[in-house]
């Protein structure tokens, strides 16, 4: 028996490839985006507490109410945006599921979705598996990966169903500005185009910047799905727990898709996060924690031959190696994993046409010892 593939051009994700290679070679894994340190002991205690107290059966499909209420309160306190816990907040199995459920809810055959590349590798498959087509807006290092909104406007057609955003952006670390938000609102005025906003790094943002969501704009909120995650904020990527915020009518369709994808998410984890969010410092302190890591990493590689602009957000730092070699970024990432024992991600994989700008992405969500050891090896190149 053979399957006619719906994704004939999709192979194993680059994150799996590079993490597996790092494991096989014993390399320092600065490729895949996950911390190598544990989450808060208090959070583990809370999970254990709720497990022992019997919270081990199915949670409600939309998520337990205490967690939805906690998210609503946090969102209002930080951004001044109101969402109803009853029918505008849904707990999901990580942001990846949220994105897929959004596309399942809104995309019909031949609908178009504008995607900014370099793009995280789950975005386009989400669109294509639901019968849609990705329309690319290419961001380049020549313009510091800023968005040209006139180009975006030129890409809109009668088939455009959504624009997919990421802020802070993965892999570039770029953050949306108020000017970006205003331009987006202007471009979408008098259209029926949705906004899908991946905001998993909302608390990992640097140098005094403030997180800006499209949902903070009154003319964009009614059309925006905000997809968030606890994994990146609280060092719990393996728990796969996130959420989607959207107006009532949008959430109703979102939940129709969500119930067939995962139905519900692990109950004790939900109760633990509901308790943990009661202390704002548990998420507000994350910004300083990761800024210190970013600053240490770029300080430790300051004597290398790389070039970079400090990441504005996320826990990734991109570096240009154009002064070192003309080798392709993919081949170089593989070779350096094997030869110097430092694994990274080649940025070309995030482009549809594999544009190679001689840039690698390093994850600095690692303990200081690993980052310093990696930096020492990189400086010897």
UniProtKB/TrEMBL annotation:
SUPFAM superfamilies: PLP-dependent transferases. The keyword Transferase applies. Residues 28-378 form the Aminotransferase class I/classII large domain. InterPro entries: Aminotransferase_I/II_large, Kynurenine-oxoglutarate_AT, PyrdxlP-dep_Trfase, PyrdxlP-dep_Trfase_major, PyrdxlP-dep_Trfase_small. Its cofactor is pyridoxal 5'-phosphate. Keywords: Aminotransferase, Pyridoxal phosphate, Transferase. The keyword Transferase applies. GO terms for cellular component: cytoplasm. One of its GO terms (molecular function) is kynurenine-oxoglutarate transaminase activity. Belongs to the class-I pyridoxal-phosphate-dependent aminotransferase family. NCBIfam families: PRK09082.1 (NF006569), PRK12414.1 (NF009079). This is Aminotransferase.
């Amino acid at each position: 028996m053979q399957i006619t593939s719906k994704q004939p051009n999709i192979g194993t994700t680059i994150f799996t490839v590079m993490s597996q290679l790092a494991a096989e070679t014993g390399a320092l894994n600065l490729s895949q985006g996950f911390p190598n340190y544990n989450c808060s002991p208090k959070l583990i205690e809370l999970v254990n507490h709720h497990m022992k107290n019997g919270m081990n059966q199915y949670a409600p499909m939309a998520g337990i109410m205490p967690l939805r209420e906690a998210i609503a309160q946090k969102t209002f306190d930080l951004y001044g945006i109101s969402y109803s816990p009853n029918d505008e907040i849904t707990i999901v199995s990580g942001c990846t599921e949220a994105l897929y459920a959004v596309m399942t809810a809104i995309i019909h055959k031949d609908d178009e979705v504008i995607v900014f590349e370099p793009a995280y590798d789950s975005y386009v498959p989400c669109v294509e598996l639901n019968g849609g087509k990705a329309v690319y807006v290419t961001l380049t290092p020549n313009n510091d990966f800023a968005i040209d909104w006139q180009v975006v406007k030129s890409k809109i057609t009668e088939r455009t169903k959504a624009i997919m955003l990421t802020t802070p952006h993965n892999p570039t670390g770029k953050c949306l500005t108020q000017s970006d938000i205003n331009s987006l609102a202007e471009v979408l005025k008098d259209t029926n185009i949705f906004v899908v906003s991946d905001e998993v790094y909302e608390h990992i943002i640097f140098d005094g910047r403030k997180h800006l969501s499209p949902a903070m704009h009154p003319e964009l909120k009614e059309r925006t799905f905000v997809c968030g995650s606890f994994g990146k904020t609280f060092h719990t990527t393996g728990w796969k727990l996130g959420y989607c915020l959207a107006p009532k009518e949008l959430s109703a369709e979102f939940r129709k898709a969500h119930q067939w994808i995962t139905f519900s998410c692990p109950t004790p984890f939900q109760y633990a996060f509901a308790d943990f969010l009661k202390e704002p410092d548990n998420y507000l302190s994350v910004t300083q924690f990761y800024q210190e890591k970013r600053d240490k990493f770029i300080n430790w590689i300051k004597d290398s031959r790389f070039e970079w602009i400090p990441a504005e957000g996320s826990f990734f730092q991109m570096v240009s190696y154009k002064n070192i070699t003309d080798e392709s970024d993919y081949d170089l990432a593989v070779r350096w994993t094997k030869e110097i024992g430092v694994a990274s991600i080649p940025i070309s994989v995030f482009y549809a046409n594999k544009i190679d700008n001689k840039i690698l992405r390093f994850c600095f969500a690692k303990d200081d010892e690993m980052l310093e050891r990696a930096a020492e090896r990189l400086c010897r190149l």
